[in-house]
Write a structure and sequence with these properties.
The chain is α+β, with helices and mostly antiparallel strands. The protein folds into 2 domains: 41-163 and 304-338, no CATH class; 198-297, no CATH class. Helix content is 40%, strand content 19%. It contains 12 helices and 15 strands. The protein has helices spanning 2-31, 57-68, 75-92, 122-129, 131-147, 175-179, 198-201, 209-216, 222-230, 269-276, 307-314, 320-327, and strands spanning 41-46, 51-56, 109-110, 151-155, 158-159, 164-165, 202-207, 236-238, 247-251, 257-262, 265-268, 283-288, 291-297, 305-306, 332-335. It has a 4-stranded antiparallel sheet with strand order 7-13-12-8. Strand 1 and strand 2 (51-56) form a beta hairpin. It is elongated. The N and C termini lie far apart (63 Å).
Length: 339
């Protein structure tokens, strides 16, 4: 009986202290429309429902942070993500010189991460996290968005293209090495805390001869493999250590693949990543048991903010501004209304 009473007491306290305030806060946010007369409204193309929805920028950003970054990340990392997402969004808007989204002529931005930023609705948040965790995570993310209200990143007086990715594998990349466009604030920097999130930091992916041929449309055969094995006294052959007739690889200083020549066919690092569906282009390549083994580091294109790295910095006394200025070189943090 005592245990039951204690449980009921704790449950009541939880509802009064946590659930009720959040529900009230959520309902006020959801039903009252824009919080102030100056609230910015944007047109968002929801690619899942194929409709354009007008929504307050704050509501949109809450959905972006919820979709793009783990909700359990430290607050300063969530705030850094909120500022990056806001900067990225505003740069898309026509009033700031942007061209909107390429997916719909009447929208400013889309919810398709392949073209813009991922976004999820409140119902999708509940499905993703569960009903009770939703209230806690929604509050954390909403606070991150509101505590950085109106803040954006600029370089040389203009909004930056605040790109980001999950994990850089230890160091980010120069924009020109990925997209053939030099952007002064998107340079390579160390990201030492990436390794703390092992599931995104290191991956071992294997392909047999048939898979390599099918995905890359090449014609490696067993004879090619036997020639390489004959030149090495090892069961795990690093294909980058010695020049061979099958594979030649060029890398950037960060360790990301610049170009690979396989069986006289050239592929850029991004082509290899896309065709083989690798987490990133930062990879070492081995031959083991007649399989091609890719030891891949990081997750994503590697340019700009590393989300896992940001969370690590947040755990080492970096605030969101310091995190952002580490990953985006030479930027300033301002209120977008000053632009």
């Amino acid at each position: 009986m005592l245990k039951n009473n204690l449980f009921i007491f704790i449950l009541i306290i939880f509802v009064i202290v946590i659930i009720i305030p959040i529900v009230i806060s959520e309902n006020l946010f959801f039903f009252s429309g824009p919080k102030d007369k100056d609230a910015m409204m944007i047109n968002v193309y929801n690619h899942k429902t194929d409709e354009v929805v007008s929504m307050e920028l704050t509501e949109y950003l809450t959905g972006v942070v919820a979709a793009e970054m783990p909700a359990f990340f430290r607050k300063e990392a969530l705030k850094a993500q909120a500022v990056a997402a806001r900067s990225y969004t505003l740069k898309k808007l026509p009033q700031f010189g942007g061209n909107g989204t390429s997916l719909h002529s009447e929208a400013d931005i889309s919810t398709d991460f392949r073209y813009d930023q991922a976004w999820i609705s409140r119902n999708e948040m509940k499905e993703k996290w569960g009903f009770l965790p939703y209230f806690y995570f929604w509050l954390r993310i909403s606070e991150a968005v509101n505590e950085t209200k109106n803040e954006v990143l600029i370089y040389d007086g203009e909004l930056i293209d605040a790109v980001y990715h999950s994990n850089s594998g230890g160091s980010t990349e120069y924009s020109e090495n990925i997209w053939n466009k030099e952007i002064p604030y998107l340079i390579s920097v160390e990201s030492p805390y990436d390794r703390e999130r092992e599931k995104n930091f290191r991956h071992i992916i294997k392909f047999d001869i048939s898979e390599m041929n099918n995905r890359l449309k090449i014609d490696i055969d067993q004879t090619d493999i036997e020639k390489i094995k004959a030149e090495h006294d090892s069961e795990n052959i690093n294909l980058e250590e010695k020049t061979n007739q099958l594979l030649k690889i060029e890398k950037f200083a960060s360790g990301r693949i610049e170009e690979i020549n396989i069986k006289n066919e050239n592929f850029s690092g991004e082509e290899i990543r896309n065709k083989l569906k690798l987490p990133s282009t930062k990879a070492n390549i081995y031959l083991k048991d007649d399989n091609f083994v890719f030891e891949v580091y990081g997750f994503g294109h590697g340019v700009g903010l590393s989300q896992d790295g940001a969370n690590g910095f947040a755990g080492n006394n970096y605030d969101y501004e310091k995190i952002l200025k580490h990953y985006y070189h030479g930027v300033e943090l301002i209120d977008y209304r000053e632009l």
